[in-house]
Amino acid sequence: MPLQPDMKIISVDDHLIEHPMAFQNHLPEKYKELGPRIVQAAGAVDVFGNAEDTVAEVWEWEGRRYVNAALNAIAGRPKEEFGFEPMRYDQIRPGCYIPAERVKDMDIDGIWAALCFPTFPRFAGTRFLEGEDKDLALACVRAYNDFVLDEWCAAAPGRLIPMVILPLWDGDLAAHEVLRTVAKGAKAISFPENPVPLGLPSWHTGHWDGVFAAAQEAGIPLCMHFGTSGKPPTTGPDAPTAVTLSVYPCNSMMAAADLLFSRVFHEFPQLKVALSEGGIGWIPFLLERMDYVFDRHSAHATRYKDVLPSELFRRNIWGCYIDEKKGLQDRYEIGVDRILYECDYPHSDSLWPNSRNHLNEMMKDVPDEEVRQIVQTNAEKLLNISA
Hints:
Helix content is about 35%, strand content about 10%. The protein has 13 helices and 12 strands. It has helices spanning about 100-110, 135-150, 170-185, 210-220, 240-245, 250-260, 265, 285-300, 310-315, 325-330, 330-335, 355-360, 370-385; strands at about 10-15, 35-40, 55-60, 65, 115, 160, 165, 190, 220-225, 275, 315-320, 340. A 6-stranded parallel β-sheet has the order 7-8-9-10-11-12. It has a 3-stranded parallel β-sheet with strand order 1-5-6. Helix 3 (about 170-185) packs parallel to helix 4. The longest helix is centred in the middle third of the chain and has 19 residues, at about 135-150.
């Protein structure tokens, strides 16, 4: 059935562009000079090594400069103009960085609520692992979270859903930041899909137990956006960008396998994980394969032998998709209650301003109650919200 008028679509994967004063407004005075700020830069180079003819606006932090302040914020542009630019705020829609304007763009698109990942901090806050002064880096993480909680989401309560980042270099500080931000209203945590490529301990250690315990106690999910490990899937250095864009869901597959054969869901049985922008069509195959491995190789390949990986998945993990026929066809194998919808505004995978219309067509053969689960109530339960 098509979407009913009373169905409120919740996107669990959108992105915000931090406005130029997002950090300065929330940093302690002693950190403002070296904290993130926007500066004007002539002759900036984009991620492909191409020099810009015009002055770009770039982030400066600890004296280092980072291009693409508005990474891939191309909502409203024809697809012939897609890329990892633009490089100035006047090249992007105000809805990318002004919350009141974001809500207007959501209304145009037929979206009720949005959970937004950061941009300058990278999607899971891993930018701040590069900090030379870890006290400053911690202040930056907290400043970003306060910006999200006190500015971005406070401007549109119920429409913009608070998601925070953590100081990943210190497990105790990370757990404390979960507690601090949950007390202020955080509903989700952006977390790397795999910490190991970032030089951090794996799921198979006890390093993250404080974070898992705090998230489990608060009942809020870890949202693991593909690519947050800093290790994009590719076949070789000369492969075209289309290869990586096509196989990025493989990162989510690996994250799922790693988590499901780890200690995490055995030690923290109520912990919730959403595999953001990873798609869902691969889930039936991976679960079948993992259960086969569990049956054939559990004597030597895993220490946990009491619960099938597919059972853990359907208890602890959610899949997120933008536009998939195959995933919807296989929804009963995945679990209708495990599927979440995402828009990806303002990035190039987004269908803005036609998300609701496209979703309406995609759902035409799906029963009403299942449509409502996928677009609304699954997200409400995961995020502990009411649309």
